[in-house]
Design a protein that fits this description.
Blueprint lengths: L5 E2 L10 H17 L3 H9 L6 H6 L9 H12 L7 E4 L2 H15 L2 E5 L4 H14 L2 E5 L2 H4 L6 H14 L4 E5 L10 H9 L6 E5 L18 E5 L11 E5 L5 H14 L5 H11 L12 H15 L4 H20 L3 E4 L9 E6 L2 H4 L3 H10 L2 E2 L1 E3 L3 E5 L7 H14 L1
Helix pairs in contact: 1-12, 4-12, 5-6, 8-9
Length: 408
């Protein structure tokens, strides 16, 4: 297995951004020199503004740190979220999904979901439905949106009909699936609200945030789930929960307080960052891994400094999808592309050969790694490629073509 020459594996972790790398390295040096000293604690609370110019030059990668509140402010800017609405930070993403599921079934008796969701999240949702004695109504849309004649109007109609026929009153939507299919989440919500009350709405934006269409400015959901380690390129896993509506803020906060006090929600980073912001450290929090908040701040600072917007970057990625699809078709792979309105910067390929389709996803992924390409593989001969945000370079296309030919 050779070192990676082409990284296309944002399903797991995006490549660490340059500013995130600088923050990581300087945090490591500070940990060696300062440990958990009072100097570090003051820096954690107040940011690098508390430093002299000499100290700032020693730890230049951390000078973008201005405290938890500033980090959340920057994240809200990236998400288009109201400046007054809270942002939750968690070490364990499953905890955030459990909180979201509890929020849904506290308000709703029947929640509509699609077949585009991340399977572990669906398991958590189903488990909470059973616990609460509520229902989950599935809707298969994946095959529909792979039909080139199927458009957004058709999708809205299909979702509306299912929502009404099943008597649903809640919604859990995956804005961009792990296989790269996009749902027009806000449009779907508005269409449903016109025909029936939708009591609670949660959006899974893990593959959407900093990639496709995350814009919470119109307040169309109660909670938006994301992360800093994929398209934002903070690398170290950290879950984010954006409050989506001012009108439901009190409801969300009351549930959060109840679950924290009962211990049902016991994520160490969530508890720690909440106490840091409120200056109410109780001295009883467990030891917390803080690296993700610093690399997230570095990645966030870099993202805010980019001249290109998320929509323009998505346009480039979608053009790269078409070029990669052309290469794949001549290399023994069939692109599995949704209809144009539902495309993103993620492409799914399936091998045209039965012998490849019978190989395990682990074996398939290792075969591409042997060719210097990092990607995600699934059983059935499927591979997933995350497109770069810049135009394909000739050597990159040659590397991809060579790997596809070799593995096929």
């Amino acid at each position: 297995m050779q070192p990676t020459q082409l990284y296309l594996d944002t399903a797991r972790l995006g490549q660490m951004s340059r500013r995130a790398q600088q923050a990581h390295l300087d945090f490591a040096r500070m940990a060696v020199e300062e440990g958990a000293s009072q100097f570090f604690e003051r820096f954690l609370r107040e940011g690098s503004d508390s430093w002299s110019g000499n100290v700032q030059s020693r730890f230049h990668g951390l000078t973008c740190w201005r405290g938890i509140s500033r980090l959340k402010e920057n994240l809200r800017t990236l998400a288009g979220s109201d400046p007054e609405l809270p942002v939750l930070m968690v070490n364990r993403l499953a905890d955030l999904m459990r909180f979201a599921s509890r929020l849904l079934f506290q308000q709703c008796s029947n929640v509509l979901v699609t077949d585009l969701g991340w399977p572990p999240y669906r398991e958590i949702l189903d488990g909470e439905a059973r616990r609460a004695g509520r229902s989950v109504t599935p809707l298969a849309v994946r095959e529909l949106i792979c039909d080139s004649q199927f458009g957004e109007d058709d999708l809205v109609d299909a979702v509306r009909r299912r929502f009404l026929a099943a008597g649903c009153d809640g919604l859990f939507l995956t804005a961009v699936s792990h296989q790269g299919f996009r749902l027009p989440a806000e449009r779907l919500v508005r269409a449903l609200e016109q025909v029936r009350e939708v009591r609670s709405i949660v959006i899974d934006g893990a593959q959407d945030f900093c990639h496709a269409s995350a814009d919470l400015s119109n307040e169309y959901c109660d909670l938006y789930l994301a992360g800093c380690h994929k398209w934002l390129q903070g690398f170290h896993p950290m879950g984010l929960g954006f409050y989506g509506r001012r009108r439901s803020r009190v409801m969300v906060e009351m549930l959060l307080v109840d679950l924290l006090e009962s211990g049902e929600l016991n994520d160490p980073l969530l508890r720690f960052t909440t106490q840091i912001e409120s200056a109410k450290l109780d001295g009883e929090t467990e030891t917390v891994n803080l690296i993700p908040i610093f690399t997230c701040q570095g990645a966030t600072a870099e993202a805010l400094e980019r001249s290109a917007s998320v929509p323009s970057l998505l346009g480039m990625r979608r053009r790269n999808v078409l070029q990669a699809a052309s290469v794949a078709e001549s290399s023994g792979w069939r692109p599995v592309l949704p209809a144009e309105p539902f495309r993103t910067g993620i492409m799914l390929l399936q091998s045209e050969r039965d012998v490849i389709r019978r190989r395990s996803h682990r074996d398939l992924r290792e075969s591409f790694a042997d060719e210097g390409v990092a990607l995600t593989a699934y059983d059935g001969g499927f591979v997933r490629l995350s497109m770069p945000a810049t135009e394909w370079q000739p050597q990159e296309i040659d590397q991809l073509r060579s790997a596809l030919h070799s593995v096929a």
